[in-house]
Design goal:
alpha/beta, ten-stranded mixed sheet
């Protein structure tokens, strides 16, 4: 075990599934160190998925996940695997079995999840970047809470072979970085993009998304919106939803729950895993989802997708809050954390339902803690967002609380 993991004071690295792999000698990411969320396979090693029962009942991986292998081939070095919420189904970062990684930019508060360990080590500057995953917000929300850059890419653009699934029609391979140039470089490798991205021609402000986040977050993000406006021009106010965004969230949760249960019900029935609080209740609920409601939700999702495609046609950027609040305090209880989900998912589910790329940038603070501004774009415009993130020059984690 290397010194980085051996001296981990963040509680972010996995001791039970530790891996370290040298990257290629040359490549665009040569010399960079990264960490991998413990849902990605590395050849010869077990993948834990945040669950001792999953770890116990699965064999070592036969090959490395292609997304991870691409980063190794580009010269980056894996220093370790990082903690995830159990089965990657939480937004908090509090794993009942393995603990809660430290949020260095909001001491005493949760890092967010499910990519909790990955965001923790990036925020602390332990690694140059880290791989996470985003199904319902598991990169974007932690990025906001910890004051780093994070992206959910266009659904399906990056291979999820060799990655533990939660809800496959929503799951994506995302990543975190503190430095916007590194953030972009990782994207060029994973997205296989060499050409410059188009310049945004139009910028929109999602009024209903800011309303859903609330007055405090909206006020805190005002200067961040002004920074984007200084670069791209004054944003045009729009209403994203054809109904309250809470209804879009309900559609997302139905489909996510149905997919998670369909994927894991056989294993759950056979193994009877000892799920922790929150995850246990979500799987129990997922087992009761009505197939007729799921069928209606699938139709509704395609309506949302068409609407967002029309709204974001061309080189359009949509501004949204990344989160409705700063990171909650640790150990606040299930009721408060469920309230976080209900407040955050109406905005986070937009990109998931419509399969959009969506980045969170550390451009604001509230009560001395980080708060992210999000940018979304049409499917396939991932590099446009990454180049825009670089142009906006977000502060490093050391500066985020000034």
């Amino acid at each position: 075990m290397n010194e980085i993991v051996a001296n981990d004071k963040l509680g972010a690295f996995c001791r039970h599934t530790h891996v370290e792999v040298k990257g290629a000698v040359d490549g665009p990411l040569a010399g960079l160190r990264f960490a991998v969320k413990d849902i990605y396979d590395v050849a010869g090693q077990k993948t834990g998925f945040g669950s001792p029962d999953w770890l116990r009942t699965h064999e070592p991986a036969g090959r490395t996940a292609p997304a991870v292998q691409a980063l190794l081939d580009a010269g980056a070095e894996i220093v370790g695997k990082t903690l995830t919420d159990e089965m990657a189904w939480s937004l908090t970062g509090e794993n009942a079995h393995y603990g809660t990684p430290v949020n260095v930019n909001a001491p005493g508060r949760i890092p967010g999840g499910s990519s909790s360990g990955s965001v923790s080590v990036v925020a602390a500057g332990v690694v140059d970047f880290a791989i996470g995953s985003d199904t319902g917000g598991s990169v974007r929300l932690p990025a906001s809470f910890c004051g780093v850059l994070g992206i959910r890419p266009t659904h399906g653009r990056i291979s999820l072979e060799g990655v533990c699934p939660l809800a496959s029609s929503f799951d994506t391979c995302g990543w975190f970085a503190r430095d916007a140039a590194v953030f972009e470089s990782v994207g060029r490798v994973l997205l296989r993009e060499d050409a410059p991205a188009p310049t945004p021609r139009r910028v929109l402000l999602a009024q209903d998304a800011f309303a859903a986040a609330g007055d405090a977050a909206t006020r805190a993000l005002r200067s961040a919106v002004e920074k984007v406006a200084a670069l791209l021009g004054k944003p045009e106010p729009v209403t994203v939803g054809d109904a309250p965004l809470s209804q879009w969230m309900d559609c997302f949760r139905l489909l996510q729950g149905a997919e998670a249960w369909a994927r894991h019900s056989e294993w759950i029935a056979r193994v009877k895993p000892a799920f922790g609080p929150g995850v246990k209740e979500r799987f129990a609920w997922a087992s009761t989802v009505d197939p007729r409601e799921v069928a209606r939700a699938k139709v509704r999702r395609e309506e949302v997708t068409r609407r967002m495609g029309e709204l974001l046609a061309g080189e359009t950027v949509l501004l949204l809050p990344s989160a409705p609040c700063i990171a909650p305090l640790r150990n606040v209880g299930l009721e408060a954390l469920e309230d976080l989900r209900v407040r955050a998912l109406p905005v986070l589910s937009i990109a998931g339902l419509a399969r959009l790329p969506h980045v969170s940038l550390p451009l604001a603070t509230l009560e001395g803690c980080p708060l992210g501004l999000s940018l979304a774009a049409a499917r396939g415009n991932d590099m446009m967002l990454l180049e825009l993130a670089k142009a906006l020059k977000p502060p490093m984690d050391a500066d985020v609380r000034r």
